[in-house]
Amino acid sequence: MHSLENMRLQFREAYNETKKQARVIVGLGTCGIAAGGNKIWDQVGSYIQTCGLDIDMMSTGCIGMCYAEPLMEIHLPDQPRFIYGNLDPEAAVAVLKRHIEEDKITPEYILAQDPRGFTAAANIDQLHDTPFYRGQSKNVLGRCGIIDPEQIVHYIAFDGYGALEKALSAMTPLQVIQEISRAGLRGRGGGGFPTGRKWEAAHNSPGSKKYVVCNADEGDPGAFMDRSILEGDPHELLEGMAICGYAIGADEGYIYVRAEYPLAIKRLQKAINEAEGMGILGNNILGSGFDFRIQIVAGAGAFVCGEETALMHSIEGQRGMPRVRPPYPAQSGLWGKPTNINNVETYANIPGIIRQGADWFASMGSENSKGSKIFALTGKINRTGLAEVPIGVSLRDIVFTVGGGVQNQKKYKAVQIGGPSGGCIPEEFLDTPVDYDSLLELGAMMGSGGLVVMDEDTCMVDVARYFLHFTQEESCGKCIPCREGTMRMLQILEKICAGQGTPEDLDTLESLCRVVQSTSLCGLGQSAPNPVQATLRYFRSEYEAHIYDKKCPAGVCADLLDITIDAGKCKGCTLCIDVCPTGAISGERKTPHKIDAALCIKCQACIVKCKFGAIAAG
Amino acid sequence: MCNCNEMIPDMRYAALEKMLGKYQGSTGKIIPVLQETQEIFGYIPEEAIKTIAAALKIPSSEVFGVATFYGLFHLEARGQNIIRVCTGTACHVQGSGKVLEAFKNALDLAPGTMTTADLQFTVEPVACLGACGMAPVIMINEDAYGRINPDDVPKILAHYQEKDDKERCIA
Q1: Residue B90 belongs to some domain of the structure
Q2: Is the same domain home to B110 and B141?
């Protein structure tokens, strides 16, 4: 078998050589692009070209600091890497100019520096000491934002494909499985099933044709961990899948990616092509005799396809409907053959475990949940982004230390974890360690790792209605409890939000929850009641305010709002009159205005427009 | 007046036949076939479903069943520009509902319709686009925009309306 080691040393040297070259790096994951990263890339590029500067440009995936996108890094020879954020194209050029011509940092835009072995500049935070980074342990995301995801040589330079080499040359398939079992890795897609046990079952299934499937149908609203891996370090996934193929005896792999991730699909395809070109995927990998190919299948927009049996039906080209298990995919999966199916983050954990050993992995995490987990921090939180932390840290640490607390000094109300299958966790449980089992006890679940922070302005009945609307639309319709039950629950929640709820509604809702939970066919239906149960458990008073007082305490449910103008504060500027779509506001210039409640549709456009804070909803 | 509108359908069906040639005899390819069909037509016309069924030697009902199951397949003509408004959780709590309303108002869409009468724009609420850190997020065609506020909507739309006018001028 031939080794990649010489090549790796060469690539490593070439990469280190680039440290001697001036370089500008722009973060171009989907987050970066949405914030305008492409425009920065273009403008900075044309500046470098017109001025004839000797500066390389490179793009990377997400380094997790979505809150400060668009980001740009400047690396000069023998200097730390400086990370600038919150840029616009003009500012980016000005920052660069100042940095290279005057050797000065622009304080308004500098976020942090990473000394990378050189002398650090004074008075600038070091990246790994910033509150956002300090509590993190970047294992899976270690290379994201550092390497160019479209260059396999970068991946190889940073130990990439070393684990595959090790598995193929020095380990038997059973040894690989034992290592994964010993590490205690559990599925990162939601359920938390032990990965080693899953692999063992697929390994033990008789048959010469087996498949490895990667679930990259990241459908939980509020989650983008997998997208960041796919866009920022696609080879890590390919390596994990190839190791799995070796372990269970499969020669073919499928990655089922949602079609909403076009950039991820493009980068994955490029990664597969490059790996095949170097003999790391395909026939007789690295001369070991092991064959493994990977194909991408683009999803077509159905949340239920995140369920493993539905996903396999979809790859087969059918309607993506789940079926009863057993048989489990390990016995009869894709096209009836034994199949191992894991999600992106699970496979991406594999290379690290094989390379650094099960003990290293098991040294992180809590008793029954090992390793680190990536969370997507979103919602009303100061530092939105991606954070990889050891499992078992408290929610408080994640939300308040890493995430910097709630936006605009508002009061924390809850964090929603686990997407439409998860629950909300209120203030009093913020010190709970985040691991699979503790979250289940609280009526939530780890899910894929989306954490949406909600503040005092979020209505929890509206949140439950939002999730039910989602699951009801995404229910595939195969089994009745899910198809009809979610519909009825949604109707009740809509009624409550509209101010027409009755006390019996809460009892009906609770009994529907129990029926849908215990009788639905797949995880989608079984977990659909979770957001309702969790909000009823912790925020029952909000439901009651909607039902008995006909009030929405958070001021969200439009039908329960009264929009009023404070005559003392109103200056009579007429701005609200102009913006009102229904002509409900009237009044002469410089005299207090009035709202006609019969015409008002409670769109709150006037509240946004008023400069004097004279209009309020309550 | 030019008669290009009458020419285009034939060319599209020729493209469909050509594409189906690649999939002759393969199984389990309904989804990629429908995806490519949608690229050709912009949606999936009834006629195309029959053509696909005949080429793949499966009942039309099976093709129809798959086409209606998945959210990304459309059975009605859509606008040239597709505005996807993310309605994921993060976007929801950051006010994506108001952004969606702003687009509908700016495009003067009648209740219950999502496509403008001149087939220039379709507005689509979609499940999470996965850029939650930038919430609320929208995508117009392949361009993503983050941290949108309802007031930004006319400005963003103007950019595409101008482009359309130019494209029409060239034609």
Answers
A1: yes
A2: yes
B108 and A CB contact within 8 Å: no
Segment A447-486, tens digit of pLDDT: 888 999 999 999 999 999 999 999 999 999 999 999 999 9
Range of the domain at B126: 81-170
SS3 state at A455: strand
Asked if residue A141 lies in contact with residue A64, where contact means CB atoms within 8 angstroms, the answer is: yes
The mean predicted confidence, pLDDT, of chain B is 87
Instruction: Choose one of B39, B69, B99: the last residue of a domain.
Output: B69
Q: What separation in angstroms does the CA of B124 have from each of A303, A472, A478, B112, B138?
A: 16, 18, 26, 12, 10
Tell me which residues of chain A, numbers 310 to 369, contact chain B at a CB-CB cutoff of 8 Å: 314-321, 335
Q: How confident is the model over B118-150, as pLDDT tens digits?
A: 999 999 998 888 788 889 999 998 888 999 999
For the cut 70, the answer to whether the pLDDT of residue B6 exceeds it is no
Query: Looking at the structure, do residues B48 and B123 belong to the same domain, yes or no?
Result: no
Is position B75 within any domain? no
Q: Does A262 touch chain B if contact means CB atoms closer than 8 Å?
A: yes
Where does the pLDDT of residue B171 fall: very low under 50, low under 70, confident under 90, or very high at 90 and above?
very low
CB contact under 8 A, A386 and B133: yes
Residue count of chain B: 171
Q: Are residues B120 and B87 in the same domain?
A: yes
In sequence order, what are the beta bridge partners of A603?
none
CA angle A528/A532/A537 to nearest 5° reads 135
Write out residues 127-156 of B within 8 Å (CB-CB) of A: 127-135, 137, 142, 144-147, 150
Distance of CA A185 to the CA centre of its chain: 19
B43 and B98 fall within a common domain: no
Tally of domains in chain B: 2
Per-residue pLDDT for A349 more than 70? yes
Residue with tokens 């069909």: B37
Answer yes or no: is B99 within a domain: yes
Q: How far off is chain B from A284, nearest CA to CA, in Å? A: 26
Q: Residue B103's domain is classified under what CATH number?
A: 3.40.30.10
To the nearest whole Å, the CA of A20 is away from the closest chain B CA by: 33
The answer to whether position B15 is within a domain reads: yes
- Look at A302 and B27 and tell me if their CB atoms are within 8 Å: no
- Using CB atoms, which residue from A218, A379, A474 is nearest to B130? A218
Using an 8 Å CB-CB cutoff, list chain A residues near B142: 262
- What is the count of residue pairs from A and B with beta carbons less than 8 Å apart? 148
Confidence of residue A393 (pLDDT cuts 50, 70, 90): very high
